[in-house]
Write a structure and sequence with these properties.
alpha+beta, 3 helices, 3 strands
Length: about 80
């Protein structure tokens, strides 16, 4: 609550840029509650794309994060 959404966007932008530079080709995976519209829009702005159910990392993401499709969006970049 004490952090402004612009600060969150700048932090994510820096983190993605850093990882692109130091770990090129490594995919980012995000699992976001559907009710969290801000984070969904932020990730879309940062180039994340929603994974289809047949996407290669989808099953691994579900298992790793311990969630299924109900109420969550799965994204990659």
């Amino acid at each position: 609550e004490a952090v402004h959404f612009f600060e969150v966007a700048l932090a994510l932008e820096w983190q993605l840029s850093y990882c692109d530079q130091h770990f090129p080709g490594v995919p980012w995976v995000a699992v976001i509650k559907r009710s969290n519209r801000f984070v969904e829009k932020l990730c879309a702005r940062m180039g994340f794309v929603e994974m289809g159910s047949d996407f290669s990392l989808r099953a691994e993401a579900e298992e790793f994060f311990g969630v299924t499709e109900d109420g969550f969006g799965f994204y990659f970049r």
